[in-house]
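Could you help me review a protein record that somebody else here produced? Do not assume that whoever made the record got everything right. The record follows directly below this note.
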Amino acid sequence: MAAATNLDQVNPAATAAAPPVFISTATLQSLITHKSLIGHLESTLPPLSAAIHSPLRHAHQITPNSSFLLMPSWSTSPLLPYIGTKLVTHNSSNSALNLPGVHAIFVLFNSLTGQPLASMDATALTLYRTACVSALASSYLSREDAEILVMVGAGSLAPHLIKAHLAVRSKLKRVIVWNRTVEKARNLVDRLKEESGFEGVCFEADECLTAAVRMGDVISCATNSEVALVKGAELKAGAHLDLVGSFTPRMKECDDEAMRRGRVFVDNEMAAVEAGELVGALERGVVIVGGLVELIKRDIVGRRSEDEITVFKSVGSAIVDLLSAQMVYQSYVHTVSPSISIV
C-alpha cells in the first residue's frame, strides 16, 4: 500500500489558551475515511507503537447487566504528544430500550502541557479503527485478486468492515452478508445498495453460511458467537479469514481446524490471552506467526502463495485508539478550526 497521511503537529504553546473541543459523530465522519485511516495506521504504527504505553484496561462491574471500562494510553514520542483515555459503558439490557449496548467517548490531552484538547465519539472511532486494522492486515494477507467478500454478522461494525476491505482490495466485486437473523442481513444489503461509491459491486444476503464460506476469498466475522461459525474444512484454498468479534475466552467465531489450516496473525499479543480462538492455542496445535506491526515492517512474511490460507485475529488496543484519535483531532484542526496554530 502507499505511504499514508502526513499530519502536522499542533503547537502546544499556540493552543494553550484554546478550550477543548467536542468532535461529534457527524464531524468525525466528515474528517476521515476508511482509506485515509488505513494509510495513517500503516505509516504510524511501525515508528510510534513502541513509544505508546497502554496498561491493561480497567473493567468495573456496576450491576449484573452493566459495566464500565477505561482504556488509557500515552505517548513518550515528541512526534505524538498525546495522552488519551477511552471510556466505555456496556449495558446488556439496552436492547429492550432500543438503545445500543455499548457507548463510548475518547478524551485527548496534550502530553507536554496536560491540557485537555478534545473529546470525541469513541463509538464511531472504535468502529472505524477496528475495521481499518482488519483491512490493513488484509492488504498483506489476502490475495490481490480476491473477488468475493463474505461478511459474517450484520451489526454496527459490518458496514465498516465491508467498506474498509473494499478500500484495500479493488477487485472485490461481490459481497455476501450472512446473519443469524436473515432480515438483518437483508436490511444491511439494502442500505449498502443505496450508498454511492460501490459501482460494480454486487451485494447480497445468504441464508446458508456454509455455502457462503466455501465461496469466500475474504471472510470477515464480527459476531458475539460462543459457538464456532466458520469451519476450517469449508475454507477454500487461498482464503483469508478475518476474525473481529471475540474478546473473551468463551467467545469464538471459528473452529480449531480453521486456525490450524491457516497461518495465524494477530493485531497484538493480548489476542492470545483474550480471544477464545487462541486461548490455549499452542496446546491445540495452533501457531501464531506474528503481529500486525511486524507485517507492516516486513519483519515477517505475509501471504506466501496463492493457495495459502491466512487468518487475522484482532481484539483491539489502546495504541490504535490513540493513533486514530490523533488523526481525527489533527484533521479537525486543519479543516474545522484553523485558528488553532499549526507548526
Remarks:
- The chain has ten helices and 15 strands.
- The two ends are 28 Å apart (CA to CA).
- Residues 133-317 form a domain with the Rossmann fold fold (CATH 3.40.50.720).
- The longest strand covers residues 66-75.
